[in-house]
Amino acid sequence: MCANVFGVLKSLFGKPFDGGKRMDHGVPQQQQQHPMEQQHQPYHPQHPAMMRLYEVQKEVASLGPQVCTFSGMQNDRDYKRLERELTRLLLEVDQVDTEGKPELQGARKRAAQEVEGLLRYLEENASHPSRLAIEELSTHARQLVDERVVAPQRSGGVAEINDELVDALQELVLRLTQVKTEGRVPLRKARYRALTRLCAVQDVLEGRTQQQTLSLPLSGETHEAVNRINQVMVKVSVARSQLVALLMGLSGRDSCAHLSRILTEMQVELDALDVSGNAAIRNYRKQVVEEINGLLKHLDLEGEGEDTRRYDLAQNNSIREIEAVRAHVSHLREGVLRHCMIGDMSFRPKAELQSLLTHLDQVDTAKNPCIREARRRAVVEVQAIITFLDLREALVCRQPGPGEHPSHRAVWLVLGSLSDLQAQVLGFDGKRVDKSYMMLEELLTKQLLALDAVDPQGDETTKVARKQAVKFAQNILNYLDMKTDEWEY
Fold first, then answer.
1. Is the dihedral of CA 100, 102, 107, 110 positive or negative?
2. How far is residue 446 from each of residues 102, 177, 315, 470, measured CA to CA in Å?
3. Contact between 391 and 472 (Cβ < 8 Å)
4. Cβ 209 vs Cβ 232: under 8 Å
5. Which of 76, 128, 307, 462 allows an S-S link to 408, with CB 3.0 to 4.6 Å?
6. How far apart are the first and last CA of the chain?
7. What contacts 98, CB < 8 A, 6 or more positions away?
8. What distance in Å separates the CA atoms of residue 93 and residue 108, rounded to the nearest whole number?
9. For residue 24, what are the β-bridge partners?
10. Residue 79 and residue 69: Cα distance in Å, rounded?
11. Which pLDDT band holds residue 28 (cuts at 50, 70, 90)?
12. Any idea what DSSP says for residue 27?
């Protein structure tokens, strides 16, 4: 939308309001004109109405980029400021005296439309369902962190950092990665800021150093060094809670600069300790220093969300690398399906697919959950083709003996049907509302019911085969679901 706004602004105000005729030092190129032509001459740019509209345009041009990258909510201070400024400009445009002239009225109308467009874009993004979903998840995360970490520390207690808390935060991260942004810059930015802060909190909580107990006896000097490190550890614990509060917007008093000074002073205090005579204590101090460094690196997140390359992952090198692999996978998938349609099993690019898995495993995700999810989905796409080829080969090579258990034969019949359905799923390129999607989902569910109806009659081989077939069918359903969930990075 913003590109359209500025494109129209350029067409409106990017040239003088002289009807397209160039003026040299105020002298028109055409000196002689018909009297009727003079009556319809467009207004000179020095006309008071045009001058006022031009002033409005300059203010709109300065506010436009702020509107197009604003990622907050309607109750934010910046939202209210932008809304107030745009409303003021709209009123000023409305007050421009056009003297009843069509040319001036047209220019005023177009200027009003541009301001209204920015106001509408600002409101749409701040109240968009995806923006509300991001805010809801962020609020949930803040409440969780406040109850378990920040509030206990402020009251003099101990933070409740356990696996349950870590798992809950990870679940919120995964849900944030699933929020759709429709390619809108403000929504991408809001999601990125929420994710970076939540991931930073995870990193801070998981990277905490435990207070160490050293074997006795300790010399007086050694005991003093350990005591000093333990005192610093208490301060680090408090600083950790303060940092988490800052990252989650729960701190009204602390600032990044203040916390940075405190952490730096701790480093200086640790550096002054003489621990050269004891390797265990030296290692203990090193761990504490590393945790302090880890806390310091998270203090520069405030301006990080302003960098377009951060939240617009289409520009990210890792995402580009993943997309290149996906394009290659798509080409291989088409080849596999084309050969299978004519019963030709000679095209088996398994080695090439395995090399793509290795390539994906080496992609640097930089701990970004969206990049991790993009890589995971690409891996699933590769694995789907590999399992399809493996099952096709197994079905072709299968040579059941006369003593094969009837239940085992029934499982293989279902696997044959699943192989045919998987070929359709691999080639499916629609949406969940499509009839073909619903048909595939129904047929796959029927195969699961067929497997459930198979009675192994105590045959262990059949039990194992049925269990694997059920897992295979569920994987196909999950893959179909993944292909149609309209996920975006």
1. positive
2. 69, 32, 43, 11
3. yes
4. no
5. 462
6. 20
7. 49, 104, 105, 108
8. 6
9. 27
10. 11
11. very low
12. E
* Beta carbons of 153 and 245 less than 8 angstroms apart: no
Count of beta carbons in the 10 Å neighbourhood of residue 367: 12
Question: Torsion angle of alpha carbons 396, 397, 403, 406, nearest 10°?
Answer: -30
CB atoms within 10 A of CB 136: 12
pLDDT in tens, 371-425: 888 899 999 999 999 999 999 999 988 888 888 899 999 999 999 999 999 999 9
The tokens for 381 are 């796409």
SS3 state of residue 23: strand
Sign of the CA dihedral with 376 first, then 378, 379, and 384 last: positive
Characterize the bridge pairing of strands 27-28 and 23-24. Answer: antiparallel
Dump the DSSP string for 131-164: HHHHHHHHHHHHHHHIIIIIHHHHTTS----SHH
3-state DSSP call for residue 364?
A: coil
127 vs 74: CA distance, rounded Å:
7
pLDDT higher at 354 or 298: 354
| pTM passes above 0.85 | no
Closest among 105, 116, 20 to 67, alpha carbons compared? 116
* Beta bridge pairs of residue 23: 28
Record the tokens describing residue 303, joined without a space. Answer: 């301006």
Contact 114, 60 (CB under 8 A): yes
In terms of Cα–Cα distance, which of 406, 400, 416, 391 is closest to 459?
406
Nearest Cα to Cα of residue 81 among 97, 96, 70, 91? 70
Share of the chain above pLDDT 70, in %: 83
Q: In the structure, what pLDDT confidence band is assigned to residue 210 with cuts at 50, 70 and 90? A: low
Distance of CA 217 to the CA centre of its chain: 53
**What is the C-alpha to C-alpha distance for residues 258 and 228, in angstroms, rounded to an integer?**
22
Cα atoms in the 13 Å half-sphere on the side-chain side of 440: 29
Residue-wise pLDDT for 224-253, tens only, equals: 788 888 888 888 888 888 888 888 887 755
